[in-house]
Amino acid sequence: MTSAPGRRATLSDVAAAAGVSKATASKALNGRDDVSADTRERVLDAVTAVGYRPTTDPRHPRDRRTLAVVFSLPASPYILGVFQGALAAATDAHADLLTRMAPDRPTRTQAAGARDWIADLRAAGVDAVVGLTLSVPDTLIRAAQEAGLPFVVVDPVDTRDRQLVSIGSSNWDGARTATDHLIGLGHRRIGWIGGPETSDAARERLYGYFAALDAAGLVPDPALIRCDQFTVGNGTRHAHDLLTAEHPPTAIMAADDELAVGTLAAAHALGIRVPDQLSICGFDDTPQAAWTTPPLTTVHQHLDDMGRIAVRTALAMCDGQAPASPRIELATSLTVRGSTGAAAG
Asked: Which residues belong to any copy of the HTH lacI-type domain (predicted)?
């Protein structure tokens, strides 16, 4: 059996010819010791039969490492900020980056699909994976562990794996500091427009908001709290609902800059002056925060450093170095601009 003329043989062709799964074929080609000698021999025979040329040969280590950066929302300013740091770190380390869209949910959550996806990365010469806010990553991470592939996640979403290696920010403290800022300006009815409840970062920010209210003796009002996906449209929709309610907030704390930009848009559409009649605070300090009208007060995250550290951690794991802690958390700070002001008397 050979591949069709003009078509390069793939790992799937090798697996089919050897009568094994793609994951097993990948393990055999990468010298894994959990593959029997008979299976390895069949896979190697299939490589010859179909004319497959592996991207890498484990018997001849490469001078350069290759990392796959995987994300779901490549157009997000947050993702672009993290990716910029990842690219810089890879360049400094003379490593290559492959960018990949996250596999669909069935692939991410089913063991067989996850193993095949990881096998494809292995066949492409990938040495480690960095996931950027990758949702439900647990099955992929287990498949990567089986294949000996280090996996680092920046701001994981909807995970039960407490041992996964992750990079993030002090989300709780950042949200608490921002809410304290609004309270210090005299605001008592402070709305919250947050991210999805499955996101660790979104939950931590919500808890920071609660902590600031509690410290000030303020009781959270469930009518002022909304949680949804991190999008401008959701910020606009929820802010419109809050601002047209019978008892609207005088300030809104948004759990990321996109939600905050949407909140600004809703206020402008309703003729509500910011910050004279409404204060708005965001989270992330992406470049767009300085371009809004007025410029956005927001919690500053070191997005590029998150990307840098994720890549450096993944490369260290490739060399057999275990991280000192599975969770690396960077400090946040508050950037005060023109979207927040004293509560109206």
From this structure: 9-54
